[in-house]
Write a sequence for this structure.
């Protein structure tokens, strides 16, 4: 069991998984939070990636604890990108974001995918999955029950991913 936590943390940092909520970081400054994450991921802590901080630059001297949920969400995503991961795992990334922040996150995800990275988004906001992702999967009670490109899933019935999902889950519930 020795080293389990360290190995788990290393995997999360390398994979680009933002820890949510960011309770550990609430007393830190933005730049301190980034340096800590950089040190954990064995990056040079004196060389933060400028593109990560440009959106948060006007708040760099603020305490994270004073941030709204949306700003903490942005910070968590920024921290996970410091390690320059090829795989980014985002759990409910739209939570707490205002409409402008949601649009900004959609663009960021598209940019990351265009760079050749894999972005895995877990969300209950099905309309956001449809607007943001190329493919989707549905897990019910720990079982994968459907997956595929969104266009192919919609070919199975439904005018939107949300309609398709509701039809699928009602059929499953009727069989149970």
């Amino acid at each position: 069991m020795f080293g389990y936590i360290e190995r788990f943390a290393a995997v999360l940092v390398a994979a680009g998984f933002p820890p949510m909520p960011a309770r550990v970081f609430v007393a830190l400054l933005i730049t301190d939070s980034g340096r800590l994450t950089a040190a954990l991921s064995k990056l040079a802590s004196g060389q933060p990636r400028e593109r990560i901080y440009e959106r948060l630059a006007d708040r760099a001297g603020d305490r994270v604890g004073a941030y709204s949920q949306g700003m903490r969400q942005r910070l968590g995503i920024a921290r996970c990108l410091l390690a320059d991961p090829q795989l980014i795992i985002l759990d409910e990334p739209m939570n707490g974001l205002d409409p402008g922040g949601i649009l900004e996150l959609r663009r960021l995800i598209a940019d990351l995918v265009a760079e050749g990275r894999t972005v895995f988004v877990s969300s209950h906001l099905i309309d956001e999955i449809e607007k943001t992702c190329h493919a989707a999967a549905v897990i019910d009670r720990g079982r994968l029950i459907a997956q595929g490109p969104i266009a192919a899933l919609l070919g199975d019935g439904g005018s939107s991913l949300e309609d398709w999902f509701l039809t699928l889950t009602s059929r499953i519930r009727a069989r149970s």
